[in-house]
Hints:
The chain is mainly alpha-helical. It has one domain. The chain has helices at 16-30, 37-52, 56-67, 77-84, 88-95, 103-113, 120-155, 160-177, and strands at 5-8, 12-15. Strands 1-2 form a two-stranded antiparallel sheet.
Amino acid sequence: MKAWTRRGPDAGSFRFSEVLSALSFALDLVEGQPEGHTVRSCLIGMKVADRLGLDAESRSALFYALLLKDAGCSSNSSRMSTLFDADDMEAKRKVKTVDWTSLPHAALYTARTVSPEGSLLAKAGRMVQFAVEGQKVSRELIRIRCERGADITRLMGFPEETARAIPNTGTARAARTA
Length: 178
């Protein structure tokens, strides 16, 4: 695996993977995930890559893509907050625990999440809006965060293969919400 190393102004050199591991902790918090979620995802992904026999370059691209998979997570926060009329971090934390193939589970999540401070009429209106736009908006939110994550990866100087892998982490997520 290619080890990206940079020279720090006072600290000599440091490994990019160590900086990205620290960044992943912050991304876990922003996404409402438990501490270590991204690192665990990376570990699982690397074990799968090993079993698939991916070459070193592909494994390196996957390693960094998995650490940066949530780099674009804040890009959809405003839309998420508007959609649910709620705190986006709370809505994001809960959304990942819902079985979206089950109408009762989806309805219960929506009822508990939309307009937490709103009236029953406000909640009902948001629930109807979510029922009408839910799948389309869900795909849009995933697309926005994946595209932005890939852009951030490119801006950080990672290879195109790493940037292209990030939207693929969202493709599986989009399929689960369809």
